[in-house]
Each structure stands twice: as C-alpha cells, then as structure tokens.
Write a structure and sequence with these properties.
Protein name: Anti-sigma regulatory factor
Order of helices and strands: EEEHHEEHEE
CATH superfamily: Histidine kinase-like ATPase, C-terminal domain
Strand content: 25-35%
Number of strands: 7
CATH architecture: 2-Layer Sandwich
Distance between the termini: 24 Å
Shape: globular
Helix content: 25-40%
InterPro entries: HATPase_C_sf
Length: 139
C-alpha cells in the first residue's frame, strides 16, 4: 500500500503482507514467526522483536477468546522504513467485547508496542499494533 503526500514531503511506500490462518491456538506460531521475520527485515533489535512477538501473541489471544467457531484470523502486516504495523482481525460472537484498556492484557500490549488500538463493530473485532524501530537506521 502506498501513502502519497504532496509538496515537500516524501512518498512512502509500505510493503503489505496478508496472512490468514484458522482462529485456533495451534496456528499462532505461524503469526509469531511471520512477525519476527518482518521485524528482523527492519533491523529491529532482538529484544524489540521478542516484545513484538509477545504483543502479537497477546492480541491474538484476546481475539480468539471472542471469535466465532470456525472463524479465520486475518493478519495484515504493513512494513515501512522504520516501523511495523500489525493488524489482527476476526469475526466475533454476538455481544462479544475485548478486554478493557485498564485490563492487564491491554497494559501488556501498550507496554510492548509504540501504539495499540482495538476496534469492533459487533460482527468483527481487530487490534492494531504499531512498533517503531528504536535504534538507528541501518546503513
């Protein structure tokens, strides 16, 4: 996906990776591995990679708790020069709610990422995690 700007701002092009797996605990390893591989591509430090893997795992666990039977977990990775955005979505049970922002699970997400946002519309729910590389840009 591309983000185009005008005037003196640069054009930024993101690489997008879409991955869909069954909404089952056994498939979370696939998402953790993809997360680590993409973060390594951005030259994240090892501890940043591990933090992001844990955050993705926690976000997925939240979503699996409210997913309808037989649902698919959709994971969208947006890779830019210094950041990785991971958005995980799933179809949810009627009336299902994600943990509140004051919950321990949510505190884990916000501690391990630059930004975390959850949204739902009663049919599906998603959690978006943004992590920026802390170290200097690779040469």
């Amino acid at each position: 996906m591309s983000q185009l700007t005008t005037d003196d701002q640069a054009i930024v092009e993101d690489d997008i990776v879409l991955l869909t797996v069954p909404a089952e605990v056994g498939y979370l390893g696939v998402l953790r591995t993809a997360t680590a591989g993409l973060a390594a591509r951005l030259h994240f430090a090892l501890d940043e990679i591990e933090d992001l893997r844990i955050a993705v795992d926690e976000a997925c666990a939240m979503l699996l708790g409210v997913a309808v039977a037989g649902a698919e977990l959709e994971c969208r990775f947006a890779v830019s020069d210094d950041a990785l955005t991971v958005q995980v979505s799933v179809q949810v049970l009627p009336g299902a709610q994600l943990p509140s922002e004051s919950s321990f699970a949510w505190k884990v997400l916000t501690a391990l990422t630059t930004d975390a946002v959850a949204q739902g519309d009663g049919v599906s729910a998603s959690i978006r995690l943004l992590t920026r590389r802390q170290g200097p840009a690779p040469v």
